[in-house]
Amino acid sequence: MKTLGTGIGWRPEIAEDIARLPGVDWVEVVAENICPGHLPDALQRLRDRGTTVIPHGVSLGLGGADRPDLGRLVALAERAEALDAPLVSEHIAFVRSGGPLTGTPRVEAGHLLPVPRTRDALDVLCENVRIAQDMLPVPLALENIAAFWSWPGEEFTEGRFLTELVERTGVRLLVDVANLHTNHVNRGEDPRAALAELPLEALAYVHVAGGFERDGLWHDSHAHPVTRPVLDVLAELCARVTPPGILLERDDHFPEAGELAAELDAIRAASREAQRV
């Protein structure tokens, strides 16, 4: 796995700022928001100067009961090839219900929903991941997601669930430290315990994002500054392994370029300090 460095999620609203930010080594784009052969000019200019671009999918729903949609897989593969990406990423989630297996109308959730950490759900997820891997021209990395609740009757911790997924499929991991913090607040799960169980040798890269707490729940908004507790989880991860890449996500309420640069600096500082320990 190539070293990516420090990156930021590419969004049209901050495209010009990203082009001028110092020390941005790579960017990640929402795969469904771009069209091969018709890339936005600002994104094409980044590619022309050698910036790595990784497509990040949000619609495969690999944790759902249905097999992955072949059209969506072909589209993701086309984007990986068009961007000359070293890998693609998606989520450990389901995003729709119904369909041929249930005999009910298909319903899109419009949100990333948590997969039950059960043996049956893991079997389905592993099979769907293998299908995706066979269709994609580059390695696949999967992201842990944030959730407001835990399913009843779960049989695995998050760490053990992801470890078995990696062992059975060889998939890489995209570890979102903000989501680990979210699940700490919302589900009482210890981020350190999760990191201790994760197969960090499979780490592809790391997401960092901001959020806020309201009425005892943490909202992974991607629209607020990165908080100290999230940076602390990042530091804990970096004390265990040197991530190939770390990426800042921001999807709304975009700040000025100076604030984005300061957040990137804070991420770099947390990483460096942890690795000195």
UniProtKB/TrEMBL annotation:
InterPro entries: MbnB/TglH/ChrH, Xyl_isomerase-like_sf. SUPFAM superfamilies: Xylose isomerase-like (SSF51658). This is Endonuclease. It comes from Streptomyces stramineus.
